[in-house]
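Quick question, first post here. What does this chain look like in 3D?
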Amino acid sequence: MDTLTWRAGTQDAAPSQWDSLKRLLAGSIQLLREKDNRFIVITSRTNTRYLQFISLDSGSIEGEAVSNHFLELANRLTPTACRRLTDLGWRSPTVSGSGRKNFWIRWPHSAAAERIAAFAVATLRDPLEIASPADLEIRHDAFGSCPATV
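> Answer (accepted):
Ran it through. Tokens below.
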């Protein structure tokens, strides 16, 4: 069995199958929890839709799914897609003021990494309408880390 280690940087290609992506994300989420202020950003290569996860000092994980606040008009989520996000369990963004601009959710430390990964895959496939995990780019990093030099 391979030992998983946290590696900051961008993974150019996600697996081509959703089940493989779910396993990859479960491992990444387990590593995410090991230290606060680590984050994972999963971005579509074909549009600006994304999910992001951050580890918090309590051991909990917070997730965000892009909202129309950050999407150009041609790439906006439909009302049906927004409803699907909330049906999955995402909390709605704040429409005015200084509140959250993305859909969001927080999982306690006790939430299984596999459950969070399955939730991420369901979000990417349905409301965010990502055709294939091969269309994704995955970035692992931490706040306060220095960029790598080559």
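The radius of gyration is 15 Å.
Residues 141 and 150 are 17 Å apart (CA to CA).
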